[in-house]
Amino acid sequence: MEKLRGACVIGQSGGPTSVINASALGAIETALDEECITKVYGMANGIKGLLEDRLYDLDQEDRDELHLLLHTPSSALGSCRYKLADPDKDDTDYKRILEIFKKYDIRYFFYNGGNDSMDTCNKISKFLLKHGYECRVMGIPKTIDNDLDMTDHCPGYGSAAKYVATTCMEVYRDAAVYGEGSVTVIEVMGRNAGWLTAASALASAQGCGPELIYLPEVPFDLEKFIRDIKEVLAVRKDVMVAVSEGIKDKDGVYISSYFTDTEKDKDAFGHIRMGGLAPNLASYAGARVDARVRGIEFSLLQRCAAHVGSENDVNESYSAGKEAVNAAVSGITDKMVGFERVYNDGVYECRTILVDLEKVANKEKKVPLEWINETGNGLLKPFIDYATPLIQGKNEYPTVNGLPRHANLKYVKPTV
Amino acid sequence: MEKLRGACVIGQSGGPTSVINASALGAIETALDEECITKVYGMANGIKGLLEDRLYDLDQEDRDELHLLLHTPSSALGSCRYKLADPDKDDTDYKRILEIFKKYDIRYFFYNGGNDSMDTCNKISKFLLKHGYECRVMGIPKTIDNDLDMTDHCPGYGSAAKYVATTCMEVYRDAAVYGEGSVTVIEVMGRNAGWLTAASALASAQGCGPELIYLPEVPFDLEKFIRDIKEVLAVRKDVMVAVSEGIKDKDGVYISSYFTDTEKDKDAFGHIRMGGLAPNLASYAGARVDARVRGIEFSLLQRCAAHVGSENDVNESYSAGKEAVNAAVSGITDKMVGFERVYNDGVYECRTILVDLEKVANKEKKVPLEWINETGNGLLKPFIDYATPLIQGKNEYPTVNGLPRHANLKYVKPTV
Asked: What is the ipTM score, two decimals?
């Protein structure tokens, strides 16, 4: 089969991770080296920038500088949280996308994001097909939330998990120095799936992590929370608790909403914006237990801490981007690159697979309930076995003046 | 001169750092290898544990395990915030200390801490001298605040500074991805001296750090703060601000106190919301500027993040502990080990010096005003030149299962 000739465009979407640029790099480097891809464009701020005809000509970047994306956190091309309309109701955006594609002769579309982005890919692909415009559309996953379906795990999760576990170990040692009784409540990202909060159990498995872990998968009860803390305080002076930002009660009400009026603050997807659960839970517990209680929010740090990234995650993220281009060039379209885990003589190996976009779009994979303990406040061995390989290896980033040397791109506008 | 024979005791005090154990290790390993030191004890929770006769027999620890202290954050022996009374008013504690010293034949006292700890050393030394009990007393500095006098810098500062600068760089890239306007307010530790907040300027020097930096050395004004942010927003979409927790207004009132103790600050359960200068400043600014404002508190993370420690800091901290023992054994007493900076052919070198305890106790060294810009919201080149050597080199810590391998001591009680 003859390879489809034309330009490619790659975009990043949703919340950044510390390795989303590694995936972008995998795609960009492979595309730059691919003969049938005539031009490599980047979308400024994802699909939003594409609609506004804001592209970057990535052929103009210095290859060595570009390669530093392997260790550069955040979304170097810029991101967006733009949601495309249902094309049956309003196809304005889709027509515009087709117009831009024609302008630049874009025949390959790579979109790097979470489940919303896979939905974006899916809709664009269907629209192009309907209008007889040949274009290969591939999704490249990313999310620290690890909640994409049909893949063993997601690029970005391993590094964020390594950050959470490493930092929990360090804070665990710090918080206990006075021996006078302390409760440290750590808030980790994760609205509906508790994967990242669960990563704190990797610290516990080393003897230096939370005694209590609460995920959104299990209904949360404030009274039980206090009882749980008191039970741990009865046997040791210092307690660490990890909570997902998205813990909910048995009626599905976010615990964070108990403390604030968050109904006001919704993002473009209608998600309630989170924040401040840790200090609020700390105040609540502080008034009810006999110990000093402190709340710590890992905030943005957990999703951009490339300095403690997982080498496995960096390499796998790169391979996901690379595979997206290779598959598209070989004629495949409408797929997301996923991961399959294999064990060779007991040694973990990660292989890329291709998954139908349709099957991934808008779905959320949660932590299996059978991996959570009976009392709903801790993780069991299957989770530890699952997550441990994902955090292996240090991301050995280059430095200058003792600080990370990130990629500084030129962001050249195309001359088309 | 004949060397003084007897046991030694080492204690840690005040807030932990990621390298206070490196200093302890320098002292412990040197003492264990020193023939005239008959026994090496650790105080459980510093002077507080000493008063309660809670010691550890460090001769019983495995030497390889002990050596892992080089990369283990927090105070492995436990810490305290106990302040000794004025011996002229109440000498109870001092008598008890002398009693314990006699019980264990302690002839060497090493205390690892900040300026309060140097005061403790000084008072104990004078009391022992007055009572004719021969004992060498040496202070080993530590503080992420970098505010000890008579030393170029303090063990612990370099690693915390490296954490602050590295994390600022990462958050800087993360916060700007949407290109829709953002203000990120980062709160850094430092009640009276702004050294650690100033370290964020190292990130700015790399082009990825705060545009605005506020230290306690310069009176803070809320209206000017908003004007400053608006000025930066006029030239770029995303602004990063670093503030010391201890910023004060022209009357010396902590800015953090502006936001607490009001009815408004109570949550739905009637508890006053805890901490949070950063979120409070963020809310304040959010209502006054046209951008999304977010507050991030580095909290305990900045003082325990050994995973991004400075190699120079680790090595210098170790050398401070080692020098304390060597000096004491050679007959010196009543000193704190300090650092002197020398440049050999332009290459930074750090040498240990010995400083009178009296001259260090209870003093605070602040950031020189001539290192701060005229508008009071940024640092100048002399600070960058000062701080850069302190963050050099990566702390190459051992790992197990992808996570730091910290020292797990046995904490054996003495048989005396």
From this structure: 0.96
